[in-house]
Amino acid sequence: MASSVNPTVRRRRLGQELRRLRELKGMTAEEVAERLLVSQSKISRLENGRRSISQRDVRDLCGVYEVEDHRIVDSLMQMAKDSRQQGWWHSFGDIPYSVYIGLETDAASLRVYDPQVVPGLLQTRPYAEALIAGALPETASGDIDKRVQVRLRRQERISAPENPLRLWTVLDEAALRRVVGNRSLMRDQLEHLVEQSQLPHVTVQVIPFDMGAHPGLNGQYAILEFPDAADSSVVYIEGVTSDLYLEKANDVQKYSVMYEHLRAQALNVEQSRQFIADIAKEYAR
Predict the structure, then answer these.
(1) Which intervals hold domain HTH cro/C1-type (predicted)?
(2) Rounded to whole angstroms, how far apart are CA atoms 244 and 235?
(3) Between the CA of residue 14 and those of 26, 97, 101, 202, what are the distances in Å?
(4) What does the longest C-alpha to C-alpha distance in the chain come to?
(5) Given phi > 0 = left and psi -120 to 50 = alpha, else beta, which region is 183?
(6) DSSP3 helix / strand / coil % (the chain, rounded to 5)
(7) Nearest residue to 50 (alpha-carbon basis) of 112, 98, 106
(8) Buried b (16+ CB within 10 A) or exposed e, 188-217
C-alpha cells in the first residue's frame, strides 16, 4: 500500500541536509567518494535527491562527517527509511516522470507555461487520451490508459477541499488552436478550461499570436514552490528521454523573471477567459 509519506520530498530534504553536513566539514563530493570507495556521481545523486538512499549510506556519510549528535543521526536515518517508501504513483508501475509527480504532489503552488498543449492538470479525459496516443504513437493502449489514470489522479490536487494546489497557467494561442482528437473534443476541452479558470486558486492567461515574439518561445517549463521554507523552488523542463530539474537559486530566479514577463504580455484573466470561450464557439460550428 502506498504511504502518505512523500518519498521524493523526503529524499530531497535528506540530500540537502547531507550536502550541508559535507560543506560544514569543508569536503568536496570527490573527497567523500574517495573515503567511501564509491563514485563521485553517487554522492551527487544522493545530495540532489534523485537516488534512493539507504540507512547504511546515511550511517557511512555521518561517519565521514563526524556527526556525534545521535539525535541528528537518528533523524537522518528515519528520513532515509521514509524516502524508500512508496508514493501513490508507484501503484501504477513505472512512470517516466515519477520524480516530478512526487514534487507536484507536495507543492503549494505551480506556475506553468505551455506553448503547444493544455497542461495536464487542466485536461479532460478524452483530450488526455488523444494527446498521449498522438504524442506516443508506439505506446500500447494499456500504457496509454495508465498514463491517463495517473494524470486524472494528479488533478485531485486542483479539486482538493483543503489546501488545493495554487495553479497559474500561461498558454500560447497555439495550444488552443491545435486540434487534438477532433473539433468536438476541443470544444469540450476549452469549455472545461474556462470552467476551471473560475476556481479561486486557478489562474489561466493566454498569449495570442498577434503578441509576436515573447520570452516563452524557448519552450515549456514549470516552476514548483513548496510550503516548507526549507524546500527550495524547482524549475522542471520535460524532455523526450530525460527531464531537467533546476534548483540553483540563480536558475530559478531567471525562470521566475521570465514568467513575470509572460504574465505581463499575456491577456488578463477576464480577456483570456473570453478569448478561450470564443475559440470554443468556433469549434462548435
Answers:
(1) 18-73
(2) 8
(3) 19, 20, 18, 31
(4) 73
(5) alpha
(6) 55, 10, 30
(7) 98
(8) bbbbbbbebbeeeebbbbbbeeeeeebbbe
- Cell 509519506 sits at which residue? 5
pTM: predicted TM-score of the whole model, two decimal places: 0.77
Alpha carbons 285 and 169: distance in angstroms, whole number = 27
- The residue segments making up the domain with residue 63 are 7-82
DSSP string, 192-225: HHHHHTTSTTEEEEEE-GGG-S-GGGG--EEEEE
pLDDT along the chain (285 residues), means of 10: 56 82 88 88 80 83 87 84 67 71 88 94 96 88 89 92 93 96 96 96 96 88 86 84 82 94 96 97 89
Same structural domain, 125 and 251: yes
Residue 237 is assigned to a structural domain of this protein: yes
Q: How far apart are CA 151 and CA 268, in angstroms?
A: 27
